[in-house]
Amino acid sequence: KSNPATKLLVETPLVRENRLVREHGLPRINKEEAVDEFVKRAGLVSIPLSAETFSVEKETEKDILFLYLTPAASDLLKKFGSLYFSDLGDTPEKQLRYVSLLRTCWYQNLLYRKHRSDAHCQEEDPNRMSTHLTGAAFDISKKTLTRTEFERFKKLCDYLHNLGIIHPIYERGGIHILVLRALDQEIDLVTLVKSFKNISAAKKKRPR
After folding, report:
1. b/e for 116-128, b at 16 or more Cβ within 10 A?
2. At what angle do helices 189-205 and 71-83 cross, to 10 degrees?
3. Does residue 66 contact residue 137 with C-beta atoms inside 8 Å?
4. In whole angstroms, what is the distance from residue 169 CA to residue 137 CA?
5. Is the Cα dihedral 108, 169, 59, 21 positive or negative?
6. Block mean pLDDT (10 aa), the chain, length 208
7. 72 near 183, Cβ under 8 Å?
8. How many CB atoms lie within 10 A of CB 64?
9. Are 143 and 182 in contact (CB under 8 A)?
10. DSSP assignment, residue 56?
11. CA distance 139 to 178
């Protein structure tokens, strides 16, 4: 029989994310804090609803969007959009679709109560709090990605994860990304993504 105490030591992806949030000192919006107050306190920047290379969309009509991220997360969101638009996608000039950026406490708890999220905004249970409350996380929608495109994004995210830049969680609806620090200037993501495409092309040409 398994020891119940052992289960408490298991670090799930959400528990790991919350540990990383604490280790990196990322602030969270609290229950009493207005969005504009937290944006100022955390140094968040605004994100356009739509740009040439990406869009931020609601998953349902009742969803609410808060278009703010940390500077590091904003930079990576825009870079991912540019990569998908020009190099990562199967066809050129496709917009990358995002569905969640910053969330407030009341909205996160609403999603939790409706069983649309496993994470909440309850300080008494810190290991299950949402990292969207930091403004350092965003979600890539899987709806418009082909299977090959998703696999390329997974390779890219795993690469950045190994460098300690992000913490990705691969969910049924897409990819949840927590950005822990700014992308190193010397990292050439375009060349990296092109190498993924070359590997995929080589596999297709391989004789059976």
Report:
1. ebebbbeeeeeeb
2. 40
3. no
4. 11
5. positive
6. 52 94 97 96 97 93 93 97 90 92 96 93 94 98 92 94 96 95 90 74 53
7. yes
8. 11
9. no
10. E
11. 9
